[in-house]
């Protein structure tokens, strides 16, 4: 089994994941007046950023070969790829239609995950 190694590209994946997590938490904790208007949409965008950061962390594990040692983590990360479509749809629907944030019908989009 090859030895895990950290390269420049794997560090860039890790920095991108950290930046996405930081931006998601900033988006959720800001006290701007605009936040009250777009609060559900900001939540969906923050969740989308968190899914993106999980995907970048997965790429870090894969590229640095740590994914071979921590295979169970890679298996747990895999289903998050199915969240991109529903979260993007919920964010877009919330920004354009001004629908209420939570419907049981919207949860049906999360079934593949």
Written overview of the protein:
- Helices cover 65% and strands 0% of the residues.
- It is built from five helices and no strands.
- The model has no long low-confidence stretch (mean pLDDT 84).
Please write out the topology.
Elements: H1 8-29, H2 33-37, H3 39-63, H4 71-77, H5 84-97
Helix count from the secondary structure assignment: 5
- Count the beta strands: 0
Q: Overall pLDDT, averaged?
A: 84
Shape: flat
Attribute tags:
single chain, mainly alpha, 113 residues, flat, 0% strand
Q: What's a quick, concise take on this entry?
A:
This protein is mostly helical and 113 residues long. It is built from five helices and no strands. α1 (8-29) packs antiparallel against α3 and α3 (39-63) packs antiparallel against α5 (84-97).
């Amino acid at each position: 089994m090859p030895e895990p190694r950290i390269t420049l590209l794997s560090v860039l994946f890790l920095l991108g994941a950290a930046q996405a997590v930081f931006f998601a938490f900033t988006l959720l904790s800001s006290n701007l007046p605009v936040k009250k208007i777009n609060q559900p949409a900001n939540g969906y965008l923050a969740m989308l950023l968190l899914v993106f950061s999980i995907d970048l962390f997965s790429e870090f594990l894969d590229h640095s070969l740590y994914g071979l040692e921590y295979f169970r983590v890679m298996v747990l990360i895999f289903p998050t790829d199915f969240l991109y479509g529903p979260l993007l749809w919920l964010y877009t629907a919330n920004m354009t239609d001004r629908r209420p944030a939570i419907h049981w019908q919207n949860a049906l989009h999360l079934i593949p995950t």
